[in-house]
């Protein structure tokens, strides 16, 4: 049995297959996922699992060099923005309109759906390298 923190088999497979500068996205329960983008649905009920819990779990195994967030998180969900920045204090942040973030989900290896029910709790993680 796997000893590390990501035990969801689909998610673990996606992370293991990522290379430098590949994208993985995590989002709230309402984020529309483009056709053709793999969706790993972890949502059980409202707020379970939370966006932050899933992000923490993924960060335990994925090296991240840059993140992409919606501009709207700054005003519509500043608490979530602060929590994200607290987990990734030295990682470059790029902001874009939410509509562009949604379009960019088509370029990710997978979208991880959480039970999060707060606005603009969506992120694209760009993988880094560990050497």
UniProtKB/TrEMBL annotation:
The keyword Transferase does not apply. GO terms for cellular component: cytosol. It is found in: Cytoplasm. It comes from the Bacteria. Its main location: cytoplasm. Its EC number is 5.4.99.62. Pfam families: RbsD_FucU (PF05025). The keyword Nucleotide-binding does not apply. Catalyzes the interconversion of beta-pyran and beta-furan forms of D-ribose. Homodecamer. This is D-ribose pyranase.
């Amino acid at each position: 049995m796997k000893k590390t923190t990501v035990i969801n088999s689909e998610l673990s497979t996606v992370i293991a297959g990522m290379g430098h500068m590949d994208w993985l996205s995590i989002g709230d329960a309402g984020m529309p996922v483009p056709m053709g983008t793999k969706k790993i649905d972890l949502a059980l009920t409202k707020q379970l699992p939370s966006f932050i819990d899933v992000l923490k779990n993924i960060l335990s195994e994925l090296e991240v060099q840059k993140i992409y967030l919606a501009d709207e998180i700054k005003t519509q969900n500043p608490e979530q923005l602060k929590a994200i920045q607290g987990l990734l204090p030295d990682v470059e942040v790029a902001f874009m309109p939410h509509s562009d973030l949604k379009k960019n989900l088509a370029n990710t290896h997978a979208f991880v759906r959480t039970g999060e029910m707060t606005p603009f709790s969506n992120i694209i993680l760009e993988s880094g390298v560990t050497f």
